[in-house]
Design brief:
DNA-binding; homodimer; 265 residues; alpha+beta; 10 strands
DNA sequence: CGTCCGTTTGAGCTTAATCAACGGACGTGG
DNA sequence: CCACGTCCGTTGATTAAGCTCAAACGGACG
């Protein structure tokens, strides 16, 4: 990478050279790892690469609660970064139900294939969410040009795959209690970025309907299950605030010990 | 890539230079895409890269039916390639049950993390299977050094992730009939690499127990479900031979039309 | 010839879905 | 300000799907 390298900018603006890019990197927040960094953001080591990413992305924009992310008609797929808030990757099934495949919070990235006939995937904001994106072609170029980005991206996708397998394994087995407890345990953990304590009052912008969509249960049964868990003193969900009264019991019920959960998020 | 580039060989043998590698590439079959090539194998364009992969992998070896793949104690994880036969990636749950996360056939690759406390993943051969592998550190080096390999690998992992999401969505919804029909529909499709016809007698080295492990049903209920499907004339499973008498009905029941299935495999 | 494993079938039970009604929170419009 | 509709959560009664336990059968293989 020499000083004359040219960095193409989003929206067709005049390309920047490296020094301009370095300058920009001082001013922009990192959209690739704005908050969490499971893998340390390799790009911090290279101002130009860092800046290239910032520039390649679209302008961040807010999505209203419950709204779908939908770019202007675009034959290309897109890679989204969640900067703030929560979003859900979901599949809309033929029978009208929707199934949540993944919750994403600040720092997570999601690939959305171009809309095709054979998959009804969508990304929906739970509560107001700030997101930005690049097109997949631009993303491919970034992968090819910035090895450190490629490496980080690769480990992200691999991680997502392992997480999807973990959910698949969980999904097949166990009672509604276990599913609900496991979901709340995971979301609370990811939300706090540490093990929940009984005193924590954790705000999560999800309803019981979302819990149903993520676990494959009906909302009615989620309600019953939650009252059961509340009566037993395990956890409580009131509005959008969750309290985990007995973390050890929740961990045991969910089948995912604290150390393991820490590994996932 | 110049003629003096040195290619490290597995097992610590003396490194090869490029011309030796090219020579080797004439003699070795490609372990990266031995059969299927969803994505055309980019490496065919570069003899040296092709050879580097062949050399980096371990010697292929046969795994007996039902046996786990277990490398000699190895702190590093490994990336396996299935050359022949079928294997299952599975998770062994605490209650003794096992859940199949993914079936892999010739040409598929699987990443296995080093054994840790917090995941009981294993890879088991269904019927005799020929596999080879490299360590994850070697794999990382290949990714860094051969962009075309990295690109192909990336699209594989992305594909696996999308497939895992599709299974997750399927898992949550529908009856045992649907789950079983969907699994058999998928496996038959992948086995034939085309849509099954009523006259096909498809050999798959899986038992009803495996179907149960992959769908989350008990073997008992799989048996009942299969007899139901047989009585209705949809499909038949006798020993390890499956016949799909009414592909259209099976596709409809499974919820995965033929075009979509073709996209997945 | 006996054993083991996979499969089949039956009976009873548990879980979660379905159908239905109701109350509270919230927003809208009169 | 209150009437209204909508969405979310709760609760009850009923139904259906799949699990568990149990027994028996058949083929493969020693």
């Amino acid at each position: 990478m020499d000083g004359t390298q040219v960095i193409e900018r989003a929206d067709g603006a005049a390309p920047w050279n490296r020094s301009q890019a370095e300058d920009a990197s001082q001013r922009h927040p990192c959209s690739i790892c704005p908050v969490r960094s499971r893998v340390p953001c390799g790009l911090a080591r290279d101002a130009a690469a860092f800046a290239a990413l910032e520039i390649a992305r679209s302008t961040p924009r807010w999505i209203a609660s419950g709204q779908q992310i939908r770019e202007p008609v675009d034959l290309d797929g897109r890679v989204y970064t969640v900067l703030q808030g929560w979003v859900a990757l979901q599949e809309d099934l033929v029978d009208g139900r929707t199934m949540i495949l993944r919750f994403a919070t600040a720092g997570d990235m999601l690939t959305i294939e171009p809309a095709t006939l054979h998959s009804a995937r969508s990304v929906v904001a739970l509560g107001p969410a700030l997101i930005c994106s690049f097109t997949q072609t631009r993303h491919r170029r970034l992968l090819a040009e910035w090895p450190e980005f490629a490496e980080q991206w690769h480990s992200r996708v691999e991680h997502d795959l392992q997480l999807a397998y973990a959910h698949l394994a969980e999904m097949a087995v166990g009672s509604a209690r276990r599913h609900v407890a496991a979901l709340i345990w995971e979301l609370a953990f990811r939300s706090l970025r540490r093990a929940p304590r009984p005193s924590d009052r954790i705000h999560m912008p999800i309803s019981q309907i979302h819990i149903g969509a993520a676990t494959g249960l009906t909302a009615v049964h989620v309600s019953r299950t939650l009252s059961g868990l509340r009566d037993e003193g395990l956890l409580e969900m009131r509005g959008h605030v969750i309290s985990i009264h007995d973390p050890a019991a929740v961990a045991r019920l969910s089948g995912v010990p604290e150390e393991v959960m820490a590994h996932w998020c």
